């Protein structure tokens, strides 16, 4: 059996069945309804006991005894209820015949058999009568009197309840006999109700009225005893013989009354309780039962009372025994049922436990099987996953390789483009100087170089977006001016093609925080697209809407070009998308990049197409949507892509007043660049102002150490060591650590920039760089050096405490000062000695000190000595000669001359003035 088929509900149902079997189904048994006339007297109680005893022998019999308590109406109600309850059989002892007759008929009519006991109804419409023959009872009483007749006799009758059949029949039988005898004088009858209280008074009156009587026939022993009591009260009890009916055994019973001499005799009147139940069962078992079951009656007098009592005692004993046996059986039965129930419950639970055990074993087996299957599946999945992972890795690696190839290639492209663009710029400047108009070809080359550069940048950007390496650097920007600058870029093309190209804004003063570099690319992409797909003489609009009430603005780029098919609109921003109506060459990354860039601003970009295409860029106002580190006030990186090539340089250079062309000493620049064209180009341009030392990258550091130049320009991709490594070496060497280094690279990402900073580079220019920016940067660095030098020369004695120097410089100056200080009184301490002590050559020391401090080493030593001497003059009482010697001057004269030439006074005069 499948575990699924062992349903727990089914088990509960089984248990229910077990329980339901465990009690006797009373509905299947026999229900007997008995309406007893009353229960106060012992005769009735004896009848009830006999019935209960008999019924208890049959476990399927339910006997319901109702007490009518002398109340006819109540008896009728009880019988109605039995009918309504559809009992199996009704037994009734009618209080009176007449009123009970119709209800007995009703029961018969509804199909319920009726057994009359002791008393009858008025007709024959009953099933069986059980009881003694009451006429015979009356006759027997009369016969006792007749048998004792002498001359004459006087008799009184005490009757039972009028209307009850025994009273009627007993009287009838009695009179049938005594009326035949003329010498029996019937003195009268008293109407009783079967109880002695109903007759005592009237009996006394009758006795007093009639005078002495010989015999009294009372219809039952209770009334007979009452008559005796009356007679005794009158003192005539020995003169009257009283006959009763019932003959009950027991202390108050008729037999005892006979034995005690109160009654002359009693007529045995059996209750019929036992027979009534037997009859009922016989009827229900469809046995052949006679209509009237007449019970035997007999006379009990002083001759047989003893025997009768013994007999009846024996019967009582048997009955008691039987009763105890029956109750023992009942107890056993009860015990049996409860044990049987417990057994069934245990069986039920055992069955459940067994089934659950089977179920759990089966489940266990099923689980083991399932687990095994799962394991196999798992293993398969793992193998497949590994395969997929392997394939994915291979694909990734291959993609990576391709991307690296393209990225590398793109970087490679950048240097020649830089060259092309710089050369064109030179040509244009040349033409400008000569007053010539720039040729059409030159413009063509420049435009196409720009285009090429943008394409390459897009390719690199795509890679950067993929690697999530973009970091927004948002700065406050007037969005109208920003848009207008780009608008101007496209104006020429619009004019050429007759395109109605417009820009408008409802708030030209609006400032937004945008990454100009990224937004510039978004604009270029959207406008390039618009120009690509708008026919000549078409229309293109840039509209800036400041939604004054809202926290955002929207920029609309509308054209009336070929548009985008409706069903393709949702795909326009996916990488490499190409519209089905697009016949032009297209990389398919521009719109994708634009979306990414707008989203980096937490903005959104949407597209609509209806009579052309409309891109809507929505951006937030303010800067709260950016992190602090994304907001830039003054970008540190000079990124040439930020600068419009055709515009003049806007860098504020008014503070840089370096006249690098005059004087004999020119600044020296070491150019480390392996691209010969670029190297040649830069040398040509820069040599106008500077001395140039060229390195192809193989000997960059060596040349730096040798020449100790004023500025180093260094490419990144170099044959032996890369630019970062070279920079790091130079910055960590005493000889060159002070030299500003500009890194020139095509790697425009953040990591490269950080690498550059880590290597100690002072500036970082991405290719293609604008030549003017390069020269401005060089000048700016040299100017800063000048400022430093100025500071040094005026604060020589404080130099080794100045905290603002870079570590190597600080160390160098400290070491320099220490050496000079240690040899302060040593007049023979020369520049050579100092260079040796610092472990560098004399020339290197000279250049380093000159570059850093702007003076020669010997001047520096001399200044140092004089500063110390001056301080001694101020603070000590030493003589001039002593101070001269202790600060390394070979003679007091030499000291005085040197002091005077520096401070304008002799040491003596200085001391005095102090
Ligand atoms: C008991 C009794 C008996 C009598 C019988 C007649 O209630 O009064 O004494 O014989 O009823 O129905």
Automatic annotation (TrEMBL):
The keyword Phosphoprotein applies. The chain crosses the membrane at residues 342-362. Residues 814-913 form the HTH araC/xylS-type domain. It catalyses: ATP + protein L-histidine = ADP + protein N-phospho-L-histidine. Gene3D superfamilies: 1.10.287.130, 3.40.50.2300, Histidine kinase-like ATPase, C-terminal domain (3.30.565.10), Homeodomain-like (1.10.10.60). Residues 668-782 form the Response regulatory domain. Residues 408-623 form the Histidine kinase domain. The modification 4-aspartylphosphate is found at residue 715. GO terms for molecular function: DNA-binding transcription factor activity; phosphorelay sensor kinase activity; sequence-specific DNA binding. It comes from Maribacter luteus. This is histidine kinase. Keywords: Coiled coil, DNA-binding, Membrane, Phosphoprotein, Transcription, Transcription regulation, Transmembrane, Transmembrane helix. Residues 374-401 form a coiled coil. Its EC number is 2.7.13.3.
